Structures are given as structure tokens and as C-alpha cells.
Amino acid sequence: MPSTGQEPNHPKLLAWLDEVVELCRPDAIHYCDGSPEEAEELVEKLIAAGTIVRLSEEAKPGSIYARTDPDDVARVEDQTFICSEDERNAGPTNNWMDPAQMKRIMTELYDGCMVGRTMYVMPFCMGHLDADDPKFGVEVSDSAYVALSMRIMTRMGAETLAAMEASGADFVPCLHSVGMPLSDGQSDVAWPCNETKYIVHFPDERTIWSYGSGYGGNSLLGKKCYALRIASVMARDEGWLAEHMLILKLTSPEGRSFHIAAAFPSACGKTNLAMLEPTIPGWKVETLGDDIAWLRFGEDGRLYATNPETGFFGVAPGTSYATNPNAMRAIEAGNSIFTNVGLTPEGDIWWEGMTKEKPETLSDWKGRTWHGATGPEGGRPEEKAAHPNSRFCTPIEQCPILADEYHDPQGVPLDAIIFGGRRENTVPLVTQSRDWRHGVFMGATCSSESTAAAKGAVGVLRRDPMAMLPFIGYHVADYVQHWIDLGKEADADKLPKIFYVNWFRRDEDGRFMWPGFGENSRVLKWIAQRIDGQVDAEETPIGLLPTADGLDVDSLGISEEDLRGVVGYREQEWRDEVPRIGRWFDSFGWRLPREMVDELLQLETALGRE
Ligand code: GTP
Ligand code: SPV
Ligand code: MN
């Protein structure tokens, strides 16, 4: 077998690679070192294959542009499986199949799946290499696009391999194939993939098998598959938490700093909050992470958060100098991969919401000529230039407001945890929980309208516990219990305070009542003041709400009516919510934590009857 790069010296890895080669039968192997020279070779290869083009060096230095197959644009939750040995460890929020049966199905799919292709071997580490317990993985993939993306999103390459070899450390084997072998003489397509897709986790073995898709969450296996689904199982067993959270550092005008982690479902505002530019004078936000946080108790009894990733894989549409200037600055610095956005004649990119004016003409995410005024040639005028789930993939170090603590393997001690979702009604702008258990109830009952980040209908309301619905690697009831138990074991005074937010309330005309984005700093300020006991709150059945003058709305220009609509809570909406929460909890089965039943009863009683 022809090979390039340095063959690893790690017995378990070599044994596994032998198995994969025998099964998948690639034409060649490349052992990735993660170097810039290697990245350049991969870029050349992808250009030759027609998968990507280079963007203009002036506009976006060192950056590339990719279009996927129009059917391979988002996570496929229907085809995502948790194959635990015992079905009871999967639970109602996961698809489950017997691992032996799944392996039979997938072994057949993998048989010869890399014929005609190069297999890339990518040793990676989620989190710092010098963490107390570094979490290694090795992804094998037949996609150079995946290799380029993994290099941005994780610590991938020679240094990680050397650390694995030196310590003989174990790793999570992550097998990925686009599922499109090339027989002799068969020409490739620009975006190889397969109609049949499987994103599969074997939590008992800590192994990941992915087939048929090249899209981020389905193929960059360090991300959702490892750092959330498999890591959540490790975290359950080892007494920590793997969460779908951003991490930020907030500093007040007086120079007091707060560390905050926030869990919002996919495409519900994590990247935007993580990089927020406050509109209120004197306040400062710095970024630590925008998608995944690992939370562990430190020796001082406080809960510390680290970001296991090294890049952003952010939603492109809606990102602009008005909404998220720091994301714009990060991507302007170059070295990025843009997928399924619009491509301008100047070799730059564009998406809906980037600028007020639409460009006259560009090439849309499907490769059609597209006009700002009339939409795509041969398409409907309302069709967008960029797919709603188009993404930028950018090194986190390019973020101009990256906090220094990002480099600390210990992470930061959390002062607050925020849960949130996209709800047009019912959930107020901000609510503080009475205590940890009530905060876990807020997280466990969180709900959100579905977005384009996953295949399927958009705007459908669903429960999304801790924004982890598609990412919990075991039974949701055990997951919620784990949250409760960690709080019980901890010193209550040292636990982060828990809040619940909603930026997405709408009026009768469907208009967002809260301006959001930079103005969300007003909510962060209230949270900081609550932590320091500087502002009162109103006790209500659903938790602690800002008093009439509690929230700083100085020069915000919001109407009294909108403010009341967004900050207040309507009792009747919550009376209607109670049975919905009840039905959600019913789905947990007999393992539903007793504490959650108590919280629901308490809410129901406090609301009383009309
Ligand atoms: P994933 O990467 O999918 O996990 O998403 P995310 O949570 O990081 O979402 P992101 O910050 O990229 O936001 C997704 C969408 O929500 C974008 O279209 C934003 O413009 C929009 N959005 C973010 N914050 C706000 C806000 O405060 N108000 C409103 N109305 N929209 C927002
Ligand atoms: C999400 O869907 O929550 C994302 C994008 O952050 S992906 O990595 O594709 O899952
Ligand atoms: Mn995400």
C-alpha cells in the first residue's frame, strides 16, 4: 500500500489501521502531520477534484470555498445512533440499534468503500495536550475536506501523535467514509457522498463510525460525535459534564470578571453571544469557546469550563459587522473554509444578512448564477444565495477578543450557566433559578423551534434538554440525574448560578420584540449584578425575574409595550406549558428523576388555577 507521511508507532493504532485498510481498501494512506505544507497539498488536491476553489488572496487570504451536494448540508438526526450494548442506556431521545446488528450493516457498507481514494489518518486531541487527562482520538477518513477542517477544529497532527506515542495513551477510533468508492476509470464528483448515511456511536467501546456524509457535524468526528456524544458518556462515568455550550468572560466597568457558559440549541445564538460587543458603556466580553464546553470540578470545589476545540464552525447567514463584528474580523484574517455560501465574481464570499445591499450577481450555493434582484437563474426569486446552514470554519486564535484563559488547560471557574432556546412566546427574556435543582429543571425542560442545522422541518417546537437533545450519548433521564447529582455533591455556594434566557420572543406580527445581539449585554449585566447581589429580583412561580427597573435599558429605545412583552411572563402561557412539560417528562419513563417531578408539581401549585 503506497503511503505518505510518518507511519505511527502506536501498537493499538497500527492494529486498528490494519483492520480499516483490510475492510475499506483505500488506494493509498496518508498519515497527517497537521502542517501548513500538508494543508497546501490537500488544497491542491481538492481544487483538482473540483471540490473547492481558492478565494481571493486580497479578500480572504489562505481561504477556500466549497459547495456540498445539495442533499448533504446538515446533521442527519434520523440517521444518528447510540448503539449501547443495553438498549436501556440509549433512551427516548436517541435512535438505538443492537451494536452487533449495526456493525453487520455498516461493515457491508464499509466493504471496499475507499477503493480509488486516499485514506487520511488524523491523530487529534480534544482539549489541551497538557491537560491532566488529555482526550485523544484518531479519525480515519477518505475526505481531504474533512482533513483540512479537522486541522482547524482540533489539535490534529504530529504533536498529538507524539504525545500519544510517548504515553501509550488510548484513543477513540473514529472511522469516516463519504461512501463513494471509485472503480477503475470512474471519474469523481465534486462532493462525493452517499444517499445512505449512518452516524453511529458505540458508547461502551468508545468508538465512532460515520458513513455517507461529508457535512461538518456528521464527518468532523472530534466535534459532536466525540466531544459531546462519547464525551458525555465518559463524563457520566468520570463525574464531569460535556455540554453544548459557549464560554465567555465578562468584565464590568469596575474591572470585576465573570465566567459564563451558555447552552442554546443549534443555530440559536451561541457564536453570537460568545463574541458579543456590548452596547452598554464600560462592559467587555472576551471569547473562550462558541460550541462545546467540558465542565469539571476543580480542587477548590468550583466548576471549571474548558473548550475542547480550536476553531469555529459557525452559521454564516446573519453574521455581519452589525450583528457579530468579531466573527467578521476573525474570518477576514483568512485561513478559513467557507461551505455553501455565495461566491462573488471577485472571489469573495457573501451570504444573506452580511450586508444590507445584496450583491448584483454571484454564484449561489448550488453553483447557479444568482442576482440580488431576481434570485437564481432558473430558480425561484426568493431562493437564497447561501444555504441557511452554510458555515465558516475558522481558527479560534483569529478571534480578536479571544480571552487569555483559552490557553489554560484548567479552564475558567464558572460564575453562571445560562440555558436558552428559540421561543416566540412563553419564555421571558431572562429568569434566574432559585437554586441548582430548579436550574436543572429549567435546562431539562428547555424547548426551542427547530433550525436548519439539522435535516428536517424548521420552526417546529421541541424540548431540547440543556440544548443537548441530539447530542446526549446515553439515557436522557440518567443525564438529567447526573446534573442533579453533581449539584448535590458540590458545595452549593461554589456552584454557578443558573439562568434561562430567550432572545426570540415575537409580537403578534411575528417581529422580534428584543433587539438581541450586542444588546444582550444588558442581560449579561443583570446576571452579573444578580451574582454580586447588586440588584433585586421579583419572585414568581417560574423563578426570579428582573424588577420593573432592574434591567438596564438606558438609550435602548425599546417601547414600554415591547419591554413588558419580552421581560414579563404571562401566567396563562405557563399554565398551558405545565401539561406539555408533563408529557415531555412522561417520555423519560420510570427513570425520570424524582427531583424533576417535585419541581413540576411546585410550578403547577405556584401557578394555581385561573
Ligand atoms: P450552532 O453552531 O449550530 O451550534 O449554532 P449557534 O448557537 O452558535 O448559533 P449562532 O450564534 O450562529 O446563531 C444562529 C442564528 O441566530 C443566526 O442566524 C443569528 O443571526 C441568530 N441570532 C443569534 N443571536 C441572536 C439574537 O440575539 N437575536 C436574534 N433575533 N437572532 C439571533
Ligand atoms: C450544530 O449543529 O450544533 C453545530 C454544527 O454546531 S455541527 O458541527 O455540524 O453539528
Ligand atoms: Mn453546535
UniProtKB/TrEMBL annotation:
Enzyme class of the recorded protein, top EC level: lyase
Catalytic activity: oxaloacetate + GTP = phosphoenolpyruvate + GDP + CO2
InterPro entries for the chain: PEP_carboxykin_GTP_CS (IPR018091), PEP_carboxykinase_C (IPR013035), PEP_carboxykinase_GTP (IPR008209), PEP_carboxykinase_GTP_C (IPR035077), PEP_carboxykinase_GTP_N (IPR035078), PEP_carboxykinase_N (IPR008210)
Cofactor requirement: Mn(2+)
Main location (coarse class): cytoplasm
Domain Phosphoenolpyruvate carboxykinase C-terminal P-loop: 240-604
Domain of life: Bacteria
UniProt subcellular location: Cytoplasm
Cofactor binding note: Binds 1 Mn(2+) ion per subunit.
Pfam families cross-referenced by the UniProt entry: PEPCK_GTP (PF00821), PEPCK_N (PF17297)
GO biological process, one term: oxaloacetate metabolic process
Ranges for domain Phosphoenolpyruvate carboxykinase GTP-utilising N-terminal: 16-236
NCBIfam families in UniProt: PRK04210.1
Subunit structure: Monomer.
PANTHER family: PHOSPHOENOLPYRUVATE CARBOXYKINASE (PTHR11561), PHOSPHOENOLPYRUVATE CARBOXYKINASE [GTP]-RELATED (PTHR11561:SF0)
Described function: Catalyzes the conversion of oxaloacetate (OAA) to phosphoenolpyruvate (PEP), the rate-limiting step in the metabolic pathway that produces glucose from lactate and other precursors derived from the citric acid cycle.
Family statement drawn from the similarity comment of this UniProt entry: Belongs to the phosphoenolpyruvate carboxykinase [GTP] family.
Protein name: Phosphoenolpyruvate carboxykinase [GTP]
Protein source organism: Tessaracoccus flavescens
Taxonomy of the source species: Bacteria, Bacillati, Actinomycetota, Actinomycetes, Propionibacteriales
